[in-house]
Write a structure and sequence with these properties.
mainly alpha, two-stranded antiparallel sheet, elongated, about 625 residues, about 5% strand, 3 domains
Length: about 625
């Protein structure tokens, strides 16, 4: 229900009677000034001049600012600033409800500082808008002022104000204004006709929308001017899901096939799917056109990276949309894509002698191979201290904030796209993994050298001797795990690095699983639908270990070394993507295996959860059960 107000002779409401601008003076959002009706003609001429020949709505406020800089001093600066800001409001399309699509002037309300929300405009600014709406002559200016008067209900007769706004918007079509602005103006005119039920103007507006859209589609130009107009014209009826304008629906199908860039086709395909209702054939057709547009760009790409980029998008979208044959076509294309011409910058670094000396000195002073191995299984997490690594990652992220705005694609296994990273959190996690990987590389060299000491200074122990040593360090260690670790260590000492990691890596997950079973954690998932019952993988087990006080430094080492966030070594080994294993990676894998094997007891009944949890807290201390 509207407030009562007296009407001025011109048919506009008394602005002070409006409720919208209450308390604006106290908010400090705009400086007040005394509106002088005697200057209306001069201000209108300023606005009309700024609108003349404007090819973009963004030009109008800038022109007003530049022209007003030379205006006589009797013009209030606050009035000139308010006049300029009038054209900083933007038409925005939004789907307010499933069957309510409209274009509105924004910001209407809220916390916007610039431009000031329309509903927060001061009384003087409102008087300025009302006064100028009656005298400006250029269609752009008439449309803007009439729309504001209509939107804020400043006129005594809202239907007449809306009608003036609609006619002015229609006059902007076909002029010098950009096609994008013309399209938005048409949608706004259409929105007003629906809001106040102006059936005669609605028919005229729809005719203009059809002519505008058909011309753009036939010329295959300005798709983003066409899209909001089609979105409006193909809205369903108030009752039922059938589009109320069949001619517009046919234009939408033509637009889907008219444009070629895949990002444009995607927008039209999404609109077709929203308007298709239960028509599955139409939905599938739109999805096929969308995916085929990406496949066409892949075929046109000239380099391996471009081909892979488009094919990865095509495969992902096709799977999401249920177009399986095109998904498989894209995936086969990925497998056959030309190689990527990577630019590799090689560098060598030598671990400083001071670092090597500090680490190796205690190993070199060892009197027996048992002493060397005892020191080796007591070393800290090769990835380093997680707190220090986080500080390093945070500094690297802050040094290059633009990276958070970019999409980073990780390629693995035969130059295949693996993961997309976007946003500040993803960049931080990538830098964290990078810092940890560097630490692992250095520590892996040292761990490998320490194991080599056993072979170089002592005879290679037998498998029985190694197993006996392992079981002496943790008297109740699970015998099959102790035996596997002994075999893997001996293979390493014989230089059979690949065999060593193929034996050791699976035991890491097995030991993690066994530890959680000791802790009575739920790690088995029963069948759901077509998915068989299964134990959780390592990626899902690590959080459960952390909930039981697993050392965070070691958790990060396992995650970065073995899982896809980092080196993904577990997956590469399991699926045969590693042709040759060097001693550094073999030593890192053995260290991960030894850590969990030595704290995994054999019989669950003999140990309470607290004992197992204490081993997780300081795993490199090798608690003897």
């Amino acid at each position: 229900m509207e407030e009562s107000s007296s009407a001025s002779p011109s048919g506009y409401r008394d602005v002070p009677a409006q409720r919208d601008h209450a308390n604006i003076e106290a908010s400090g959002t705009a400086a007040a000034y005394g509106f002088d009706p005697g200057q209306t003609a001069e201000l209108a001429a300023l606005v009309d001049g700024a609108c003349e020949g404007a090819e973009d709505m963004y030009l109008v406020p800038d022109r007003i600012r530049r022209t007003s800089a030379g205006m006589p001093p009797e013009f209030d600066p606050n009035a000139l600033r308010g006049l300029s800001a009038t054209f900083d409001y933007r038409l925005t399309c939004e789907q307010e409800r499933p069957k309510r699509f409209a274009a509105t002037l924004q910001p209407m309300e809220g916390d916007s500082e610039f431009p000031q929300p329309l509903r927060q405009a001061s009384e003087d600014i409102r008087q300025l808008w009302v006064g100028l709406e009656q005298v400006v002559t250029h269609p752009i200016a008439r449309a803007r002022f009439a729309d504001i008067v209509f939107s804020l209900r400043l006129a005594d007769n809202s239907r007449e104000a809306g009608s003036r706004a609609i006619r002015a918007y229609l006059e902007t079509v076909g002029g010098e204004l950009s096609r994008l602005d013309q399209g938005m103006n048409l949608v706004r005119a259409w929105s007003i006709t629906r809001e106040v039920a102006l059936s005669e103007l609605e028919a005229e507006t729809i005719d203009a929308m059809l002519v505008f859209t058909e011309a753009r589609v036939d010329a295959k130009e300005e798709p983003y001017a066409v899209l909001p107009v089609l979105q409006a014209m193909t809205m369903p009826r108030a009752k039922g899901g059938t589009p109320w304008l069949p001619a517009a629906n046919a234009l939408l199908e033509r637009a889907l096939l008219a444009y070629h860039p895949s990002h444009v086709v995607k927008n039209f395909a999404e609109l077709v799917r929203r308007r298709a209702g239960d028509d599955q054939a139409r939905i599938e057709h739109a999805s096929r056109v969308q995916v085929q547009a990406v496949l066409a760009e892949a075929e046109a790409a000239k380099d391996g990276m471009g081909v892979r980029h488009h094919l990865e998008i095509a495969a992902t979208e096709a799977r999401r949309l249920g177009i399986i044959d095109l998904a498989e076509q894209a995936e086969v294309g990925l497998q056959q894509a030309p190689p990527i011409e990577w630019v590799v910058e090689e560098f060598e670094f030598k671990v400083p002698d001071a670092v090597t000396g500090r680490f190796m000195r205690s190993f070199e002073l060892a009197q027996t191979w048992q002493d060397v191995l005892a020191l080796w299984i007591s070393t800290d997490a090769p990835s380093g201290d997680v707190a220090s690594n986080r500080e390093t990652a945070r500094a690297a992220t802050e040094a290059s904030p633009i990276r958070s705005l970019m999409t980073n694609v990780t390629y693995r296994d035969g130059d295949m796209p693996s993961r997309k990273l976007t946003g500040s959190d993803a960049v931080f996690n990538q830098e964290l993994a990078r810092a940890e990987t560097l630490s692992m590389t250095v520590r892996g060299v040292l761990l490998a050298q320490a194991l080599e000491l056993i072979k170089n200074r002592f005879a290679i122990p037998t498998e029985v001797e190694l197993e006996t040593f392992i079981r002496s360090r943790a008297k109740d260690v699970h015998p099959p795990y102790a035996r596997a670790l002994a075999k893997a260590l001996r293979l390493f000492l014989f230089g059979e690095f690949e065999a060593a990691v193929h034996l050791a890596v699976p035991k890491i997950e097995a030991a993690a699983r066994a530890l959680l079973l000791h802790l009575n954690e739920p790690i088995y998932r029963t069948q759901v639908g077509d998915t068989d019952g299964h134990f959780l993988g390592l990626g899902a087990l690590l959080p459960l270990l952390c909930e039981n006080d697993f050392d965070p430094n070691w958790e990060r080492y396992f995650r970065t070394f073995l899982l896809s966030e980092g080196s993904n070594f577990r997956n590469l080994i399991a699926h045969g993507f590693v042709d040759e294993v060097d001693p550094v990676y073999a030593a890192l894998a053995l260290r991960a295996c030894a850590l969990l094997v030595l704290i995994t007891p054999s019989a669950p009944a003999r140990h309470d959860a607290d004992t197992v949890r204490s081993a997780l807290t300081q795993p490199h201390a090798t608690v003897a059960f």
